[in-house]
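Deliverable D4.2, example record:
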Amino acid sequence: MFDVSQQIKQILPFRLTGRVTRVVGLTASVSGFPAPLGAVCAIDRENGQPIEAEVVGFQDEETLLLPYEDLTGIRRGDRVSLIQSVPAVAVGEGILGRVLDGRGRCIDGKNQVMLSHRANLKAKPISPLSRPRIDAPLSTGIRCIDGLLTCGKGQRLGIFAGSGVGKSTLMGQMARQSSADINVVCLVGERGREVREFLDKDLGPEGLARSVVIVATSDEPALIRLRAAHLASAVAEYFRDTGKDVLLMMDSVTRYALAQREIGLAAGEPPATRGYPPSVFSLLPKLLERSGRTDSGSITGFYTVLVEADDANEPISDTVRGILDGHIMLSRKLAHESHWPAIDVLQSISRSMNDITSPEHQRSAAELKKLMAAYQQSEDLISIGAYQAGSNFEVDLAIKLRPLWNDYLRQGNTEDSNFEEAENGLQNLITRIQQLKPMKTDNAQRDSPPGQEIEAAGSTS
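Output generated by the structure prediction step:
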């Protein structure tokens, strides 16, 4: 493991220095230390290794620091030295297949790698006029997404869900099966137990081999959790600039916002919407806009949002949904029915789908969604047996075809798929629908048992 303390001790005599005057809550106040906002510093303890910290604000003549670890052992008068004016991290091909912490250090127990390229943690997003149009689909390996919510290379989609409805499993499937060249997976604020489970079970050796995983668990300081999200974006930008198509998956943006709320309140910001300070809502677009296409490569972003109390209109969900290019809603009701992935198609949308799919694909998706909507509108009547067969042809057809579209939308954790298979499966499903539609004028056939019609449609397709 690289020893940061030795590096700090070598540079302390030559850097801008100040002295700790007081510690309040999570922050340390330093006098005589005009370091810029975002700079990385070292607090030199008399008994112990130096503690790294970051400048998060200013108050009167003092500079406010938030540490990367516990402040235990800090005394009044301890010296503070500047390490980096602009936060940067070493990246390169050597981190492929590795697991990093929020500070960019390998934590998988393997040998450390020497990396020559340094990336800015908080690089500016791509200029709007430097973004080529999204014109090609990205195969995610998830049949429901590829068929009905098609994602393009360079698009940014949000996965909105409460806890325990399959976000991590969905991300693992995409990491293993997507057509992207490189995966960058960022776990922000995850439970420590779930990290190893995600690596071994959801991601697996196949997915890890072409991935970079950045981990900052919930017990780590807020700055580390915040830094992990920026590190993941910096790593994705490095591979994009080398000409790769990168799939960036971040779980979750909500915990990123909670980390910034903790930092903002500690720095003295006033709380605003539901306790979130204004800085949260200014940082979210800066982070999310870093994904996208350039002339050299692309970053396709999937950002999970932990919906508070399953309320899709809470502040973070509402803000993120307005920034991204589409949203995928996971349904707790479908999860309770063991319908995996638990994607609520009618509540989800991909804003780039019409630009990257054929007119026939779009018509097929619209036809299926129309039937799903017809069933949903009458679902309460159907479930209690109050619906009268024959009162609405579209509802009759939806009742008969519901088992077929559920078979299409369901996909096992180990079941492989790609964009072509998803498109062909959707066309086959629409063919069966078209075969049943002429029976609209035949009352005898329309009132026949659903199973016979499905069997007849399946035998002719």
